[in-house]
Amino acid sequence: MPKTIISVDPKKAPWEQETPLHNRWHPDIPPVASVKEGEAFRVECVDWTGGQIKNDDSSDDVKNVDLSQVHYLSGPIEIEGAKAGDLLKVEFLNLGPLDGDEWGFTGTFAKENGGGFLTDHFPKATKACWDIEGIWCTSRHIPGVKFAGLIHPGLIGTAPSHELLEMWNERESALVAEEGTEAEKTLCGCLHTRPLACLPEPKGAMLGLLGHFLDKHQKDEAWDAIASKAARTVPGRENGGNCDIKNLSRGCTVYFPVFVDGAMLSMGDMHMSQGDGEVVSQCYDTKYFYCWTLKEVSFLGDFVEVVLRGNRNVWFS
Prior knowledge:
Blueprint: E1 3-6, E2 24-25, E3 33-35, E4 40-45, H1 60-63, E5 73-79, E6 87-97, E7 103-108, E8 126-133, E9 136-139, E10 146-148, E11 152-157, H2 162-178, H3 213-216, H4 221-227, E12 231-232, E13 236-237, E14 240-242, E15 253-257, E16 265-273, E17 284-286, E18 288-293, E19 298-299, E20 301-308
Parallel strand pairs: 1-4, 3-5, 18-20
Antiparallel strand pairs: 2-12, 4-18, 5-16, 6-15, 6-18, 6-20, 7-8, 7-17, 8-9, 9-10, 11-14, 11-16, 13-14, 16-17, 19-20
């Protein structure tokens, strides 16, 4: 049984967890755990909203979800000996729901709160809660349906360097500046779609051991400086991140570039089931554990191994 290096209590808010979580990418967010190459380990995660969605019969929590707080991640985990320029091999060993909390939800955002790809056709918030038993799930809100899920993390990646973070912010600021102009690269001008970029936002930020916005925002200059540049977790990027690939499940191997010493691996946004890309902003989210390895480093579903050193031109794809 791999050792648990990060545990969570689904009944507690993210900022009340024994091990702090984070919901932004920044190289100055310190690690909350460390592992050695060849060490087995397990990581537990809360759902991506930090418990804002409840197991009840109302979709008001989906309608009013605070998207400035997403996605809550477990980590960063320092990989001892990993250096910037290395390639990190991650093998998923096992994934599953937390004992005693075997449920998830399907939700579609309200048009006035983010929406999704089909928001013009389905503008209202919806929610269905699902009970999980093994690989199977059923919902009291959709009677007569039972299917097998393919458990996977929607989000997993390494920390960016300061240089890469600056590149992200410049690139995405340019995309935002194009909105409403002829240079716009989305369909926002003819139907309601989400933008391609999600700029830094101190409101809602949780920076792990550095603290949460409820305690720090506009009260701590050092925290504000980091939060004002820390990247949102919504877009997928060169570090992996919000890739939403359903086949990243048991038995998979993924390679991540290392941009900072220690790699600083984080993961979360666990899905019981979902189509690739989450294009209609709908999936079966829940609270899960991972087991991994780092050439035998296991954490709630993953395996991590430093397999390449000195190559500064390796990118995640």
